[in-house]
Amino acid sequence: MKNNEVLAEEISERDEGALKFLKDIKWFRIENPKGFKLEFYFDTANPYFKNAVLTKTYHMIDEDEPILEKAIGTEIEWLPGKCLTQKILKKKPKKGSKNTKPITKTEQCESFFNFFSPPQAEELQSLMEQDYDIGSTIRDKIIPHAVSWFTGEAAQDEKVEGHRLLRHILVPAVFRFFASELGFWSAAMGSNNKDSFNVADLGSALNAEDRAGLVNALKDKLQDLTGKHSDVLENLSPDVRKRVDTLRDIQAQHDELESKFFEERAVLEAKYQKLYQPLYTKRFEIVNGDVEVEGGETEKSDQEEKGVPDFWLTAMKNNEVLAEEISERDEGALKFLKDIKWFRIENPKGFKLEFYFDTANPYFKNAVLTKTYHMIDEDEPILEKAIGTEIEWLPGKCLTQKILKKKPKKGSKNTKPITKTEQCESFFNFFSPPQAEELQNLMEHDYDIGAPAGEGPQGERPPECKPQ
């Protein structure tokens, strides 16, 4: 558990003595109410508390998109003087006090075992979310991959994922910086098109010494990361090492089954995507007024109102993430949005969003705007890059830029106003995603915007944006 970053933060040095008596962790689903339960089994020789089993139960409002209703933990029966969740402070009485005895005060202290005293409904939601993170980490990471966490390999895998982002995003940025600073930009690029830059381009521009120095620095960092998990194995006795090797074989069998699970899940998802199709077609027809529902057109009016006006605009504005991206100026264009579709792409892995607009849209020529996400890892969404449609704005209708006119300075020979174009906040900036040289947090923010339309909690697409 200490090799997992989430759990390591919860375990104090005082906790380690008790956790050495932990023999096993199990979990299982519960049905009424929905949720899951964790069970921690301790050796009966444990000198800290009487309980042989400590449990933690999560009741979920919605299990698919984990919304926690409440959590219930075991009341720990601490043995005298062994409570790890509280500490006793003794203070000297104030001068002149009639009481000459030390004042004893009990304070809560940080401990993993506070996990079994979860926050109640009246406490801050953030505490409940943190509490759920710990439980789901145990369920989804520690239990199925306990051996890998023991050896540190699982922790290393997470660091490697971080390295992938470093390699795909930050390394090109570093190369760009070096090229620019050292005057190699034009040689590396071979043109003025910065978007066509890649690491190989710079390889021919940097001299051997510069290139070797940068590569060696990155290589040293990688070796430092990949070598750490072996320390645990090297420090084991021969007998324990044999047992761990056997456990690793068991883990490999588990991972093989898990791989089959992912394969079968992909087939099942594809099956249901086809079954969803007729429903999305019906939704499209009703929203856009292509068909009338039974019992419709009950009132006659001078202005004919077709379908469901502003359907997608309203839907997106009701999402907290998307609402922050939509400016008042954007709303006029988004009223012409007729449909949103998504589908998976296989080479490279990822998914694509398609936004369909009415041809009467007076803002741009495009009938369809797209956004494509290329993923390093699709199961744990790690973004490699995103590609958006270039919008063909009609004259004077660009929503991503504003034109500023400034008066010339006094005494200037130029008497005409100075015109300056500035980028402005707009949902349509979404189709001009950040490039590799920009900060990683911009790419993550960009992915967050796409996720509500393309992906819901725990990798499930919400109904309104499933593939069509």
From TrEMBL:
<dbReference type="GO" id="GO:0005737">
    <property type="term" value="C:cytoplasm"/>
</dbReference>
<dbReference type="GO" id="GO:0006334">
    <property type="term" value="P:nucleosome assembly"/>
</dbReference>
<keyword id="KW-0963">Cytoplasm</keyword>
<dbReference type="GO" id="GO:0042393">
    <property type="term" value="F:histone binding"/>
</dbReference>
<dbReference type="GO" id="GO:0000724">
    <property type="term" value="P:double-strand break repair via homologous recombination"/>
</dbReference>
<dbReference type="InterPro" id="IPR037231">
    <property type="entry name" value="NAP-like_sf"/>
</dbReference>
<keyword id="KW-0539">Nucleus</keyword>
<keyword id="KW-0143">Chaperone</keyword>
<feature type="region of interest" description="Disordered">
    <location>
        <begin position="445"/>
        <end position="468"/>
    </location>
</feature>
<comment type="similarity">
    <text>Belongs to the nucleosome assembly protein (NAP) family.</text>
</comment>
<protein>
    <recommendedName>
        <fullName>Nucleosome assembly protein 1-like 1</fullName>
    </recommendedName>
</protein>
<dbReference type="InterPro" id="IPR002164">
    <property type="entry name" value="NAP_family"/>
</dbReference>
<dbReference type="GO" id="GO:0005634">
    <property type="term" value="C:nucleus"/>
</dbReference>
<dbReference type="Pfam" id="PF00956">
    <property type="entry name" value="NAP"/>
</dbReference>
<comment type="function">
    <text>May modulate chromatin structure by regulation of nucleosome assembly/disassembly. Could function together with B-type cyclins in the regulation of microtubule dynamics.</text>
</comment>
